Amino acid sequence: MSRVQLALNVDNLDEAVAFYSKLFNAEPAKRKDGYANFAITDPALKLVLLENPGKGGTLNHLGVEVESSETVHGEIARLASEGLFTEEEIGTTCCFATQDKVWVTGPAGEKWEVYTVLADSESFGVSPEPCCAGDC
């Protein structure tokens, strides 16, 4: 199953989690200091909340979560064949998970990632992509 990811900056994580729990009738799938994500079934959505005081209500980045590394590598090849510049991160730790991913940038500067989660991590991680750290 693939699902669209929407990563939002929020001013107050507790308030945002309370709101989105009510909106989607679901509890976070993962919650860490300054971070929460919801794995919504209907509609198929991965909602990521990144606490960034002063940037609340803004888009952090977008993505598509896919089932496997093979799918990520297929997207790397496909996007490159379409002439899009890609930034690959294989085996990176970001957002409390080890992931394989590829990034592309849309025409207005919006960041998109196609990724798969390989394993959970206890640390947020360090990623060369500034969106993962909430700097977008």
Which descriptors would you attach to this protein?
136 residues; alpha+beta; 8-stranded mixed beta sheet; 2 helices; 43% strand
Structural description of this entry:
By secondary structure, the protein is of the alpha+beta class. Helix content is 18%, strand content 43%. It is built from two helices and eight strands. The chain has helices at residues 13-24, 69-81, and strands at 3-10, 30-32, 35-40, 45-51, 59-65, 87-94, 97-105, 111-120. Strands 2-3-4-1-5-8-7-6 form an eight-stranded mixed sheet, with helices on one face. Strand 7 (97-105) and strand 8 (111-120) form a beta hairpin. The radius of gyration is 14 Å and the shape is globular. The chain starts with a strand and ends in a 16-residue tail after the last strand.
Layout of helices and strands, plus pairs?
Blueprint: E1 3-10, H1 13-24, E2 30-32, E3 35-40, E4 45-51, E5 59-65, H2 69-81, E6 87-94, E7 97-105, E8 111-120
Parallel strand pairs: 1-4, 5-8
Antiparallel strand pairs: 1-5, 2-3, 3-4, 6-7, 7-8
**Separation, N- and C-terminal Cα atoms:** 28 Å
What string gives the helices and strands in order? EHEEEEHEEE
Query: Can you tell me the overall shape?
Result: globular
| Radius of gyration from the alpha-carbon trace, in angstroms | 14 Å
Q: List segments where confidence is low: pLDDT < 50 over at least 5 consecutive residues.
A: none
The overall strand count is: 8
**How many distinct helices?**
2
How is the biggest beta sheet arranged?
8 strands, mixed
Q: Residue-averaged pLDDT, rounded?
A: 89
- Which structural class is indicated by helix and strand composition? alpha+beta
User: How do the strands of the widest beta sheet line up side by side?
Assistant: 2-3-4-1-5-8-7-6
Helicity, in percent? 10-25%
Strand content: 35-45%
